[in-house]
Specification:
Layout (H helix, E strand, L loop, with lengths): L19 E7 L6 E7 L10 H20 L6 E6 L11 H6 L5 H16 L8 E5 L3 E2 L1 H8 L2 E4 L6 E2 L2 H4 L5
Parallel strand pairs: 2-3, 3-4, 4-6, 5-7
Antiparallel strand pairs: 1-2
Helix pairs in contact: 1-3
Length: 171
């Protein structure tokens, strides 16, 4: 059995008070369900940070485990960003700029850990849909592209891959 309103815990102890939220809702009047992962940093346009990556990867691992063991039952998972302004502005630029004096090999290791913390969405064993309602830039675009399907609003400049402008690799 599973609990319809089950909420996953973030390090702060609440599922929707952290940087990443999780909610399960029925699909219409049916007995089928969809889960929603929400990036919850509206003030930063849902910019991806190391801390958010830790919450996101822990949540994805827990969802995958619960789906495989039958503790949770959803037919699909939607990934979206909180607010109307952006799906995700990408990696936090202040953090990226702080890395500029590090040796290349150290940054390569840091960036691979950072990317893996979001690419773990690929481990969820049901279809994962990116609901892109605003710009998805850099690592945010990478997260959207890692999902099985993407649906986007008609806003211009919905995906931006500007890694070379920042002098970093695209993962």
């Amino acid at each position: 059995m599973f609990t319809l309103a089950r909420r996953y815990s973030s390090p702060s102890g609440s599922s929707n008070d952290g940087l990443v939220g999780w909610e399960v809702r029925p699909i219409g009047d049916s007995s089928r369900y969809v889960g929603t992962i929400t990036l919850q940093s509206e003030a930063t346009l849902n910019a991806l940070t190391v801390e958010m990556g830790k919450e996101f990867s822990a949540l994805c691992r827990e969802i995958a485990h619960d789906l495989c063991t039958g503790e949770q039952q959803v037919d699909a998972v939607v990934v979206t960003g909180k607010g109307d302004a952006a799906f995700s502005a990408g990696g936090n630029l202040d953090w990226l700029r702080s890395l500029r004096h590090n040796p290349v090999h150290a940054n390569a290791d840091l960036m691979m850990q950072f990317y893996r913390s979001f690419l773990c969405v690929r481990d969820i064993p049901v279809p994962v849909i990116a609901a892109i309602h605003g710009p998805a830039m850099g690592a945010g675009a990478g997260l959207a592209l890692a999902c099985d399907l993407r649906t986007a609003s008609p806003k211009p400049k919905i995906l931006g891959l500007h890694f070379t402008k920042l002098g970093i690799h695209a993962g």
